[in-house]
Amino acid sequence: MRALRHWALGARLLATALLALPFASPAHAITSSAAAALTPQDSDSALDVHAVRRELDSFQSAQISLRKAMAIAEALHSGSITADISFDGASDPAVYRVKTMQQNRIWQHAIDASTGQVVGGEPPSPLASLGAEDRDNLVVLRALRHRLADAVRVAEHTTSGKAISGGLMRERGKLNFVIVVLTGSDLKEVILEPPGARRR
After folding, report:
1. Which 3 state secondary structure label does DSSP give 159?
2. Alpha-carbon distance 150 to 187, whole Å?
């Protein structure tokens, strides 16, 4: 997904994103396409393209949406919020891997993409066990009024697609929500900066 190329969002699409976004004043919404990432550059890339295609096919047949998986994971620990979520179609069964934060603990769960059942998890890790940048990002996330679920809803509405992953990214002192959405057969990356997300 890091190989995705950025391109400025057209005014009409940006206006749609800003109207749909419940955030007070998002700085920008940018999408990028993964079509180039699916083009083989050498023989090893051909295998990667087939793996990506299988992953996307598995995602398209999933009965549980990414937003629903997020809600299931957050309900496991009262007051928890999602920091990161991604679809894993290579596992059996296909799952959403969700990281949630509750107070000073990080939980990791696997949610079955067909049934919504919790099929795996790990004991919680203390927030202090993370690197300084990850810890700082989660502290800012906890203080925000808007959540990753809000950004996913906006990204899906803006692109008319289904979110396959979502998380956080800090760039030039700004914490952004990064959502990857499948629209038809294309992957698009949507970046949203919630208000109050700058490094303090």
Report:
1. helix
2. 19
